[in-house]
Give the backbone structure.
Amino acid sequence: MNNLNSSNSHGSAWLMFSLMTVACWGLYGAFLHTGQMAMNDPINGRYKAFLWVGLAYFLTAVLAPLAMLVMRGASWSFPTSGIGWSLVAGILGAVGAFGVLLAFGAKGTPAVVMSIVFAGAPVINAIYSIATHPPAGGWSKLPLPFVLGICLAAVGGCLVTLYKPAPAPTAKPAVTRSAEPVGESNAGRQL
């Protein structure tokens, strides 16, 4: 609760940007799968789609920050450790996105794959965070709501995955047969 209150004291822009990310990442898997299918290439469609995801990353993750740095008059000093950790983060993000495509290729559906990803990611983040920054007093001092939140995220991901409703069946188009002219038989049509 204290973290939420301290964030609120600095305005709510963080919440708006967090919700923007939730919306974008919530649609990411479905749109990525649609792009993969629209490539009309069952063998290489996912790699073609990922190529365009990479281009989108370039446009968004290279050009946008460059523009912001230029507009803000930022220094062009980049410490080695900052570059290294940022590259590792970028590799993790790209490998994760590639893993989503591979999961689709292995017959995972966007609803199931993304439920596992988005329920599992906060659990991994929480475990990593408390492992690298343990609470005062050690692990035994973890607040019960925090531990329950991790458990609920994992259980929620499982439940969404196991009990995802099946899509409505698609209606098959009616087969129409051309009507045979009245009084004409197959024998009468032969030359």
The first helix runs from residue 2 to 8. Helices lie at 2-8, 13-38, 45-72, 80-105, 110-132, 144-162, 186-189. Residues 109-164 form one domain. The chain has two domains: 12-70+87-106, 109-164.
